[in-house]
Amino acid sequence: MPPKRLVALRTRQVGTNLATLCGTAFSTLFTHTHATHKMSFAEAPAPVFTAADLLAFDESQLVRYLESNSRVDGGFDISNAASLESLSKSQRDELGSRLRAAAPRAENATASRSINMDALLARLTSIEGGQDGSPELGRLRSPPETSESARSTVPPDPNEEYLYEASSYHELIQDGGRPVCPIEVLSHILDEPAASYEPILPWLSHLDSASRNGEIQTVFSRQLDRWWDFCKWQWDNRGTADGDGGFSAFLAAKRSKYERIGDMRWVSDSSFEETMLRLWQQKPELRLLSDDQEFPAYREAVKRRLAPHNFNRPLQLMKDPRKQTEWTTWLEYLNFEQWWLERHAAAAEAEERQYHQAWKRLLEARRQNTGTVALAKQLAAAQANLDTAMKAIDDFIRDTAHYRRAEAAVYHQKNRVQWVLKEARVMEAEVPQQRGTARNNSKSDAGESKKRRRSDDDVIPSESWSKRTRRGGGGKDAVPDTVSGQPRRSQRMHFQSTSATRSVRLSTRRKRG
Question: Where is the composition biased (Basic and acidic residues) (predicted)?
Fold first, then answer.
C-alpha cells in the first residue's frame, strides 16, 4: 500500500476511533443516569495540603480549600492539614485568623457561621509549649489518608485508637446519649470485611470504601462530637445568660474521659482547660428561632415539630436542660436532627433549579454532538467533537456539585433521623416494663438497680474485639444479641487509668498491619 494512502487510512481510523469515543462518552453517561434522571459521580478525594501551603495561599485559594473540605452536616472539616507542628506561634495565629476570614466567603453558605475548626484549634494549642508528640495531638488528626505521603508515615498506635473510641463510647452513655450499636458489633464490622455495616449506617456519609472505612473506625467519637453539638444547641436555644452555657459539663466529661484512658499528663497540662474552652466555643451557634424569641417560644416550636410522631409520653422541656428526663432530652435531640434534615432539604431545593438547567445544557450538547460526529471524517473534527463532549460532561459535574452534595446530605440525614426516631420508640416502650419491675421491688432494690445501671464500675472484658465477637456464635456475619440495636447495660465500659492501657489488645488490626 502506498505510504500516502496508508497515512490517510490511519488518520481516518484514528478519527473514527475518536468519534466513537466521543459518542461513547455521552452514551455511558446517559446509560448510567437514564433510570433516575439523577447523576452521582464519585467525588475526588481532597488533596492534602501542608501548613506551609495554607500560609502561602491567597484568600481565594483558602476559600476553595474550605469548600473542598465542607461537611454534609454543616461547616468545614480542616483537620487534615499536615505539618502544623512546624509552624511558629505567630504563624499559627496568622493561619487561624486567615481561615476565619475566608470562611464567610466559602460557598457552603448555610454553614459558614459554623466552621468546624475543633481539631485544628486543639492541635495548634497542643503544639504550644513543645507538646508536638502528645497523645492528644495524634488523636485529633483525621483518619489515615490513602495518598503516597500518608502511606509513608508512621501509623497511629492501634491500642491508643481503640482506647479513644472505647472511651468515647463510654462518655456518650454517661452523658445521656445512645451509641448507634454495641462496641462488639462495631468490632465485628471492622474484623469482617464482608459484614454488613447497616447497624452504623446512620453515621456513615461516604460512598467510597476508603473514606467509609475511616468513618467506621471513628463512629463513636463522631457520634459523641455530634451529641455535644446538640448539648451546645440546647443552651443556645434557651438564651440562658447566667452560668457558663454548658461548658462546665463539657469540661468535666472531657477530663474524665482522658483520665479513664490514662492520659493524666494531658489532663494536668496548663493548656487543657483553654483547649477545651476553644473546642466548646467553636461548636456551631445555631438557633431554631430568631434571637428575639425566648425559651417558651422554643418549647412550643419543638412540640409542634414533634407532634406528627404522636408520642404517648409527654415532652417536658426545662429551662435548665440538666433537670430534664432522659426521655425529654432524647426527643429534643430528635428535634435537633430533624431540624438539620429540613435545613439540608431546603439547601437541596435551592440548588435543584440549577441542576435542571445544567441537565438541559448537557442534553443540548449531546444533540449537537450527535449531528456533527456522524459527519466527522477527519482527525481534527473528531478531536474537536470529543473535546466538546468532555467539556459538556465536566461542566455538568461542576455545575451540579452543590446540588449533589446537598442531596447526599438529605439522604444521610434521613437515615440518622429515622434511627433517632426508632430509639425514641424503644425508650417509650421501655417505660411500662420499668414501672412493672418497680412495683415488684422495694424502694431500696429499685434504687440499687438504678445505681447499677448508671455505675461507672461496669467493666468490659479486656479481650480483643474479634474474640468477643466470635462468642456470639452463628455464621460469618453473626453479631452479639442486642435489643433494638442498643448496648446492653452490662456492656457499659469503664477503663481504669493504669489497667486499660495494659489490658486492651487488638489482635485483628495488628494482623492487618
Answer: 445-457
The values of phi and psi at residue 76, to 5°, are -130, 140
Q: What count of other Cβ atoms lies within 10 Å of the Cβ of residue 465?
A: 24
AA letter at 196: S
Tell me what percent of the chain is helix, strand and coil, each rounded to the nearest 5.
65, 0, 30
Q: Which three cell numbers stand for residue 240?
A: 440562658
Q: Print the SS3 string covering 201-252.
A: HHHCCCCCHHHHHHHHHCHHHHHHHHHHHHHHHHHHCCCCCCCCCCHHHHHH
Cβ-based neighbours of 109, under 8 Å, separated by 6 or more: none
Cα 405 to Cα 399: distance, rounded to the nearest angstrom: 12
Could you give the dihedral angle defined by the CA atoms of residues 483, 489, 491 and 496, in that order, rounded to the nearest 10 degrees? 160
∠79-85-89 over CA atoms, to 5°? 100
Provide φ and ψ at 241, rounded to 5°.
-80, -35
The number of beta carbons lying within 10 Å of the beta carbon of residue 188 is: 25
CB half-sphere exposure, 477, CA atoms < 13 A: 7
Q: Is the dihedral of CA 227, 410, 117, 245 positive or negative?
A: negative
221 contacts 164 by C-beta, under 8 angstroms: yes
Contact 259, 497 (CB under 8 A): yes
Instruction: Let me know if 78 is exposed, middle or buried by CB neighbors in 10 A (0-12, 13-18, 19+).
Output: buried
What is the pTM (predicted TM-score) of this model?
0.59
Answer yes or no: are the C-beta atoms of 435 and 428 closer than 8 Å. no
Write the single-letter amino acid at 133: G
Query: 31-40: long-range contacts at Cβ-Cβ below 8 A with a sequence spacing of 24 or more?
Result: 37/359, 38/407, 39/396, 39/400, 39/404, 40/207, 40/404
Give 429-464 pLDDT, tens digit per residue.
886 655 544 445 544 444 444 443 333 333 333 343
Give the closest residue to 64 by CA, choosing from 352, 396, 401.
Answer: 401
Model confidence pLDDT, tens digit, residues 125-168:
554 444 443 333 333 333 333 333 333 344 455 567 788 889 99
Closest CA to 406 of 183, 170, 127, 205: 205
Q: Report the 10 Å Cβ neighbour count for 444.
A: 8
What is the structure's pLDDT at 415?
92
